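PT: before anyone asks, these are the final sequences, not the draft ones from last week. 574 residues across everything. Please model them as a single complex and drop the result in this thread when it's through.
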Amino acid sequence: MDQLMVKNIVKKYRRTTVLNNISFNLEPAKIYGLLGRNGAGKTTLLNIISNRIFPTSGEVQIGGESINDNDELLNKIFLMSEANLYPREMKIAQTFDLADVAYGNFDYDLADRLLTAFELSGNAKVTNLSTGQRTASKLIVALAVNAEYVLLDEPILGLDANHRELFYKELVKSYQEKPRTFVLSTHLIEEIQQLVEHVLILDKHQIIINDDLDDLLARAHAISGPAKLVDEYTAGLKVLKSESMGNIKTSYVFDHLNDERPIPDQVKLDHYDLQHLFIYLTDGGAY
Amino acid sequence: MDQLMVKNIVKKYRRTTVLNNISFNLEPAKIYGLLGRNGAGKTTLLNIISNRIFPTSGEVQIGGESINDNDELLNKIFLMSEANLYPREMKIAQTFDLADVAYGNFDYDLADRLLTAFELSGNAKVTNLSTGQRTASKLIVALAVNAEYVLLDEPILGLDANHRELFYKELVKSYQEKPRTFVLSTHLIEEIQQLVEHVLILDKHQIIINDDLDDLLARAHAISGPAKLVDEYTAGLKVLKSESMGNIKTSYVFDHLNDERPIPDQVKLDHYDLQHLFIYLTDGGAY
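LR: through. Structure below.
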């Protein structure tokens, strides 16, 4: 399988720049988290990668060739989105057939099993489904479709906790059986932390983070104790946010710690999670 | 402040029973989580408590009196819901005035501060807002309205992680300054675990859990080790779910442990969280 390369993508609507020179690669067989605040441009970016809309400039390539007008390459990319693209009278089972016609080799066995697991009937009309049911029916297509790059825009919209857990488990299972690339774009960062290997953060129309999850978390340290000692210890380190209560201060560092610097007894070192790292990075632009 | 009592509420639509004899109390100045799967009847229940729809039988009381047709009592209850009840041309600031007229003493200072925090303008028309912005504008009303019982149905719909964190912080702050009762009905159980004191779980149209969070979590034990030892240790305890990998078994217990029973060296005791407790309780009806 070939790498997918997003190269210098710019998207402008009149005078508004939605994407400002975005470049990154998607490796084959990897699970990505695409994170960003509301309005950051995630949906626009996913629509460009899947050729639903055109960039103002820049290009998406697979194996060095532009996907533009290349049906063979476009057939490697599938986007599950919030938009409802199906005719109103279409039944869930017919959306499976559409994916089979477009991408070939649709996994009907998996789709049937997932219909049961999500408590859906293939005969139900898409237009009559609740938000959670509609999301589930789209997830089934996304997991059973034969594509090397599967992009999921808000894949858990309206799902209750049980169905979210079911989706996460089925995603991992499907990925292990047939490794391919998934891009998960969601606001539920806490929940996908267990799934993603690599994180892309889009903020203010640019990519500010493009790192493996492990590398990110290895730099996320919460350091708390008497304010003076915390300040001394964190001097020279990148501090994203600090909170004080009385004389006790907690500083959220995003940096490798200097192992040679001794840690005072009264200072406590802890880790913090991806969701908080995201919030601190995108709140007011400390980064 | 008086207790709110939900007494033997039944709600039927034709032959479908949505709520099957629901009874519980809401204490003054307490934060509740109302949890349930999609379709469990949470929204119907909240609509009945706030007198937007009528039960088939049963009654909601405050201080022993029925709220039905009692304006004084109804003015103690506010429901923030997904439904859009405002006229299309209404501006956010006008929704504040409506809440002031209906409930009196609207906290305009708080509302102004929250408008800035959520990056909204009071002049924006409700109909032009994105889902996340509309949710934020409703949350501002819910936090600034003068009501003793504030019911929040899906309060975080469409909010990004930053705005969810902002809401949780402002809720706690507002609650500390002016203690009153909040009921949070949401699918993001992991996130509200830090906020709620008491948990109500609605499953298959009945209340199956009505307990303080601490009491629930004190009974949630994950017990793992060699299958034989785990089975011996958990004999007689309520086990909600078990998973096995090779000879290693993990059983999710929902029970107080018998402290007199010795724990074998190879068996590991852990806790699990509210979201998983909810999933195990409502998946297939182990309870």
